[in-house]
Write a structure and sequence with these properties.
Length: 365
């Protein structure tokens, strides 16, 4: 075991010492309120601190308690989350707030195992809430921790394998100072975020440089090791922005796909990027437009939008119709005044389009 020659006290002591001198002052570190800690942890999953901060402040202000979040309208929660991505986190956040409000008297469970039963709370988040709010001795293992441990101890087991997860989890729990679990967890994650960074770690001023395997063996770029490559799927979206005077049609996404519960426009998805002629001759377009009278006001440039597993190429067709019957459209479509669209939660792609020059020109007509 790599810890043979390094005692827990030595490792944790060095780490906490570094943390106390270098930590950033972040609002969720000054509270023991499990609700605020949970909120920050859900916001920070897949999100950098700089981006997550404003969302944390907005949520904590709008919904200062778990009960107030539970009572909120879903659209309001999704709107506040807009732009942060990974929208299932917002849905789970809301659902879990309702669950705690209804089934736990609005009090967060205080054990790791009980926390794990909450929707959207996995090993990492349960350990974070248990240690930060309740001082329970559970190690948090996130991407930062994988990086720090793999580099210092020279572990090349893939971090995306079951063996790797088990090995790193065991090591992290061996190293934690059980009497200072919250501070230790904060320290190791902060160390990974600002000292042992993915690129250009600050090895020359690192308290662990003398014992760090990766530093001694020039393996910093190779550790941590991942076995699988992410497969990215390309998708081609043709959004139909149906206008009738000041009204447009928007669509609530309810199918099992990206952006559930957010609003976009009626969509024709194609297998590849097609030109305007192909599009207007396609069966899907003809079925969509049926015998409506219309003019095409503009076709946008292609917007490229990148998600973790998908690359989306989207074009927006601004169509002016003589009338709009929502009855002939999917049930998820509603007619609204175009200027009201900003009250609805929309994906970043739609927000970018609406804020673009092309969209504004259409708006003025
Ligand atoms: S010496 Fe470099 S690679 Fe090793 S722990 Fe320190 S910052 Fe990370």
């Amino acid at each position: 075991m790599p810890t043979e020659n390094i005692s827990m006290n030595y490792f944790s002591g060095k780490l906490i010492n570094w943390y106390l001198q270098n930590k950033r002052d972040l609002p969720w570190r000054n509270t023991k309120d499990p609700y605020l800690i949970w909120l920050s942890e859900i916001i920070l999953q897949q999100t950098k601190v700089e981006q997550g901060l404003s969302y944390y402040f907005a949520f904590a202000k709008e919904f200062p308690t778990v009960k107030s979040l539970a009572q909120a309208e879903n659209n309001k929660v999704m709107k506040l989350w807009q732009g942060l991505g990974y929208y299932s986190r917002a849905r789970n956040l809301h659902e879990t707030a309702k669950n705690i409000s209804e089934n736990y008297y609005s009090l967060f469970p205080n054990t790791y195992n009980e926390l794990l039963k909450l929707k959207g709370v996995g090993d990492y988040t349960a350990a974070a809430i248990a240690s930060f709010a309740f001082d329970k001795p559970h190690a948090t293992v996130d991407g930062n921790v994988y990086r720090v441990l793999s580099r210092i101890f020279g572990i090349s087991t893939p971090i995306d394998s079951n063996d790797g997860k088990k090995e790193f989890n065991q090591l992290a729990n061996e190293l934690i100072d059980k009497k200072k679990s919250g501070t230790h967890n904060q320290a190791i994650m902060e160390f990974g975020a600002i000292q042992c960074k993915p690129i250009n770690p600050k090895c020359s001023i690192c308290p662990f440089s003398e014992m760090c395997f990766a530093f001694a063996n020039n393996k910093i770029k190779e550790l941590p090791f991942k076995a699988k490559k992410i497969l990215v799927r390309k998708r081609f979206f043709n959004y139909i922005v149906l206008n009738h005077h000041s009204c447009i049609i928007i669509n609530k996404r309810e199918e099992k796909d990206i952006w559930i519960n957010l609003y976009d426009f009626p969509l024709i998805e194609t297998e590849k990027e097609i030109d305007e002629e192909e599009f207007l001759n396609s069966k899907n377009w003809k079925e969509f437009i049926l015998n409506k009278k219309y003019i095409i006001k503009s076709v946008s440039i292609t917007y490229k939008h990148i998600l973790t597993h998908q690359k989306i190429y989207a074009r927006f067709w601004e169509i002016e119709c003589d009338k709009i019957f929502t009855k002939s459209l999917p049930k998820t479509c509603i007619k609204i005044n175009r200027k009201d669209i900003f009250h609805y939660p929309v994906p970043k792609l739609i927000e970018n389009y609406l804020n673009s020059k092309g969209s504004k020109i259409i708006n003025k007509k």
